[in-house]
Protein 1
Amino acid sequence: MFFGKELTNLDVEKIVESQSVVLGLDIGSKTLGVAVSDRRLMIATGLKTLTIKNNNFSPLLELVKEYKVGAVVFGWPVQMNGIPGEQCEKIAKTAEIISQYLHVEFFRWDERLSTCAVEQVLLSADLSRAKRSRIIDKTAAVYILQGALDAINMRRA
């Protein structure tokens, strides 16, 4: 089964030298939150939430081409004890399909509690339930990608 690579295996210098970006994904059962890094790999920005229908990832492929994506980081929702659970299996299946479609390297990032953290931020911003539901996946993708970028930059320092 596909699990993606450890983030420590990302060739950061290759990404930076080629002026590529890293795409962040929050993979859900029906939606896909998408975020993108800047070319210096410092800041994550939310792009959109895509609806997944019949494993059609062509809108995601268009983003990969448009932004010159060099790698993808996807959320890996391990259990609190660090062991991959049932949700990881679902994510792995979808990530494998997406990776075959996009032809870029995929890296996993521990996203324990990311959706909870994002939900708390959105609640504290006093957003309506409807607005929160429209942006939570994209915001979770930003949270996942920014965490990965912060880890990458701590190693580079």
Protein 2
Amino acid sequence: MTAATVMFLGAIGGLGVLVMALGFRRKPPKDEEQTRLKKFRAKGSRAEARKALADRALQLVLAAALGLGGWYATGWPVGGLLGAMAGYMGPLMLQAPRKRQAVTDEIEAYSQWAEQVRDLVGASGSLFEAVCLSAENAPAKLRPAVVNMTALARTVGLPPALDWFAAEMRSPFADRLVLGMKIAWDSGARVTEAFESTARGMRNEVEMRRRNEVANSRAWTQVTAILFVTIIAVGFMFVFNRGFFDPFGSTIGQVVLLAVGVLIFGNVFWVLKLSESGVPIRLLSVDEEQGVDSSPLAAGAQDS
């Protein structure tokens, strides 16, 4: 038997041993995959819950402080009530412009990421490789979620990771991209044209929202200026000419003061609602009451 034959037979034997070892290796059960996905999902939910709790706590603390301060300074129950209303709505007024800008920035981020994936798909021809390569250069607003999604995709596959991404972001714009990617993954079709139309639509929406924001900013500036001048004027009159407010100490005066306060804060609340940035309905939904197992994420993990 020649040396070449011995080497060939040895290679075949080693390959057989390797195949047997891989066959006997324990595969991670689906429960472990779901547990891993739940951990990723729970981490984002806890962060979001903490932020919402902090915002609500700030409103309640300001409402309590200004309510007690108004009652102590005036001795009027309605004064305390108006102070509490001011403390509760103050953060909403300050956050409203930032929230509108955040929606616009979010759409622009998804548009940029769609363009990146489109270019990478055109260069590599593989959606999986394009998504993984786009993680490090994704827009900063989406980068942490995209990095986590690619880590999951290498473990449980791209479709379950895309489901996790849609459930994590809770955004109709993320749903658009996820649905496009999943359809392309299942059908094997080219996604360059689909991503091009999606990115172009988002770009047009960004431009429209920026034009609307100019009009909203003008109205918001006027409302803020009127409220600021009113508060300053009333404060100066209360300090230097307190006798002017004596009629408001009576029962009828308290009713009139309450009516004026309700009109002012009602108009502010109405302007807040009018200035909110409308977002489209979600194309993918998550049953929060049933948890992650009943979401598209769990269904994708079971299919894999």
Protein 3
Amino acid sequence: MSRLRLRVYRWVQSGLPASLFGRLALLLVLTVVISRVLVVSLLSGQLLPTWSATGDIPATNSLADILQLGGLMDVVMLMLAAWVGAHWLSEPVRKLASAAKELGCDIQREPMLEEGTLECREATRVFNQMHARIRRQMAQRDQFVAAVSHDLRTPLTRLSLRVQSLSDPLDRERFGKDIVEMNEMIHTTLDYLRGLADQEPMVLLDVGSLLHTLAENAQDSAQDVQVLGNVSVVPLLAQASALRRCVGNLIDNAVRYGKSARISLLDMPEQLQISVHDDGPGIADSELGKVLVPFYRLESSGNRHTGGVGLGLATANDIAQKHGGSLTLANHPAGGLVATLRLPRRVRRTA
């Protein structure tokens, strides 16, 4: 049955004008013609053959009644034509908007099918060309990141070996700490640059177990991290490693600036909400949006251990957006900062 419908649909499409303007013009002409034919049929008595025993038309089928019914039929036909025309106009825009939204979450998605009217096919072709250019640019970025990673790590490795030959133990310790810090900064920056291009598959993830694992790992390092309340929820379709890195960055940020982290989970029909609350001084309202920008740091001492690289929250925000969610920061009335991660529930796609 579906094949028959597809054949009928293609046959109808082949008989229509190629452009949207032509289809709308044809629809208007057909509406006027059909409406006039129906009115003429009413006037001739062919559509309402209600006769009395003497062969006369009853009063209910008088000329005035027929004209009124013809006017009503004009309105119905125009409404039907307006609905069809609105559907022709809105459906391509809806598909294009849906594809653009999916593109933000999955850059490797399949190109859109070039179908429909001439204008729709042209818009789809331009969209697919833009999609292809973005994929090429991201591939070039990956190559650049890989080259930079190799070029930077090689001299750092040589420096590490040469430091070991220094005679002064204090110099060895100082140079060694600087090299370790540089290596960590390079690793963090390159990891951020690679993050958006990571094509990790979506899997059903037990978010509650993930939160408990992250909290236990932090507690093993003598950090004050606790999971509050019940976190047993229905598994979420997400990228496991990316979500672990996202929540881990929120916990690290809370511990660094607030000395503690309290994690709570709220399960809702359409989304999952993870909140990380610290006991720190909070952030000025004017800075809440800025700290989500890459390399932006509130702490200006230049010490990476107190101010970080400025990528933790930016990475978490990118991962949230990649999942179709959001990350928001707010100062808690009782003190401290609350980072709220909202992730939409998705239906697993089947082949």
Protein 4
Amino acid sequence: MKKENAFSQDFFKDFSQEALFRVLLNQVDYSVCFKDREHRYVLCSSSFARLLGYKTPDDVKWKKLDDFVTSEEASAFVEYEDRVMDQKTPVLNLEKYFRLSGNRATVETIWLTTSIYPLIDQDGNVRGTWSITRDITEEKTTEQKLKQKDKLCDDLNARIHYLSTVDEVTGLYNRKYFEEIVKRNMRLFSRVRGRGYSAEFSIVLMDINHFTMFCKDHGPETGDVVLQYIADILKSSTRCADDVFRVGNDEFALILSDTALSGAKTLTARINEKLKKKPLVIDEEKYNFTMCYGYSVYKDQLDASELIQDADQSLFEAIKKRSN
């Protein structure tokens, strides 16, 4: 061990501490800077000088940060340095975005992460600050690109969900989503009942009378106009808590929260009244439409298919009466 220590002393005897320090300072990839109390650069690494577009650290000496970035960005950074000097406490891993200025700048914008430390002399006096800085521009650029891709994916997923749950012609929810909401409501109202509260909701299925004949006489495009007209009537007749669906060619459905059978029938009577008062006008000609309704109320059905089947059967009976 003694021979090794002697070798170490012999090896470093021809190097001053300052020379060794400068070798280290100029070779590290991280940017190291020393500033006085007036925030002027006293010493910096070669990598920091190159970052600002200068050839050597001496070219940066005695300059201030506002020589390279906007005054607002420089002032914000100076506040951190003042705090470090006043409190003799470092600020670690500070991420900052800078817009470099001046004709020597090799890039327009840059992201840096910096740790700032108080520069204290042997007598305990704060002489300035020193900092270690790392360029994280590439990482931030990659991060932003990933965020943009994530947003695009989220938007695409939202669009896919919309297309999978919404009817293209009317803008109402479709059959698939109708069945999902029935299942969800059954789970929800079942939990409420389990706590001892009375809770029920109703389903209304409806069919436009003589819609197929109308389409044969006027064409499928006019049929779409009728479907949109009915959709508007249904939306304007229901509450925000209710859901409206198109579940078939000329079939619509309502899910009415906290509504008994009597309430569902009161609503359909209101729909009938609107259909009478607001006929559909096509080429200045008025058309009055009527509908058949089927009802079911969530009571003790075991699953969604049973509840929907009850409403289907009720609608079937109403259509039979219409035909007679």
